[in-house]
Amino acid sequence: MPTDTLPTPEQSPSAPSGELIRLEQVTKRFGDHTVLDRLDFSVDAGRHVTLIGPSGSGKTTILRLLMTLTKPDEGTITVAGRRLFPAPEKQVREVRKQIGMVFQQFNLFPNMSVLRNITEAPVTVLGMAKDEAEERARDLLELVGLADKRDARPTQLSGGQQQRVAIARALAMRPKVLLLDEVTSALDPELVAGVLDVLRDIARSTDITMLCVTHEMNFARDISDQVLMFDSGRVIESGPPEQIFGEPENDRTREFLSAVL
Ligand code: ADP
Questions:
Q1: Under a CB-based contact definition with an 8 Å cutoff, are residues 25 and 78 in contact?
Q2: 103, 123, 134, 261: which sits with the fewest CB atoms below 10 Å from its CB?
Q3: Residue 198 half-sphere exposure toward CB, CA atoms < 13 A
């Protein structure tokens, strides 16, 4: 892939490694329900980390906290050395720009063309020149295999194509980290492979940091260099995919995997 389509210069192979995301003692409650209880959690730059575990264990909540779609009750969140929570609103907006997210439901702007869906935020939020944003959008559409769909409306695309546009749209903001929340769950089975192929390509050809929540164990095995098994708001086991899927040590991990594989 040409270097000008890499998400950011910081993700070049010479990028400094080290911790990119850190949650410290994060507690999140919904009413009486404590979903995360003093969670410590970190992701190193350039890593492709997948969160697996039973439904309701708090995986999506972690992504939503990082995206500032919800706030912790206690604790701190730091991204690339800067505080995301607690932090003044202006700083939150700055730090938040380093994070891109792709949702289960693609959430594209239905009244805009594919190209405009991708250029809108770089132009309005980053202040990028329209020409530059369009050039980059074309590169990204090439990357996700949709170069011929730039003028289409989202409703004219299949779910898999819409999700690939959503991936391009997230990358257009040049995030340091890409959060992927069950990105294939809403897709018809025959459309899943195309989306996973694109993500695999991005994982291999860039060193953007990825934090994924998925039920697709093959995808987790394939794309991740670290798998975290979550249960009741805690990481109960972590390791490279060959270890977690091949020789899980924790009984809960074994039970979970035998139920889903
Ligand atoms: P997972 O991604 O592991 O399935 P979630 O992070 O989505 O888990 O949810 C963890 C728990 O928090 C679940 O019990 C869920 O019902 C609850 N929860 C998540 N979001 C909300 C919300 N906005 N209001 C109330 N409860 C919520």
A1: no
A2: 261
A3: 25
For ligand 1, say whether the CB of 61 is within 6 Å of any of its atoms. yes
User: In this structure, what token pair is assigned to residue 194?
Assistant: 């195309």
Considering only CA atoms, give the Rg of the chain.
Answer: 18
Q: Where are the alpha helices (DSSP H) in 58-188?
A: 59-66, 89-96, 114-124, 130-143, 159-172
pTM of the model: 0.92
Cβ pair 121, 173 in contact under 8 A: yes
At 247, is the secondary structure helix, strand, or coil?
coil
Is beta strand 177-181 parallel, antiparallel or unpaired with respect to 209-213?
parallel
Q: What is the pLDDT of residues 180-206, one digit of tens each?
A: 999 999 999 999 999 999 999 999 988
Interface confidence, given as ipTM, is 0.98
Is the separation of the CB atoms in 21 and 43 below 8 Å? yes
Alpha carbon of 35 to ligand 1 centroid (Å):
7
Residue having the nearest C-alpha atom to atom 6 of ligand 1: 58
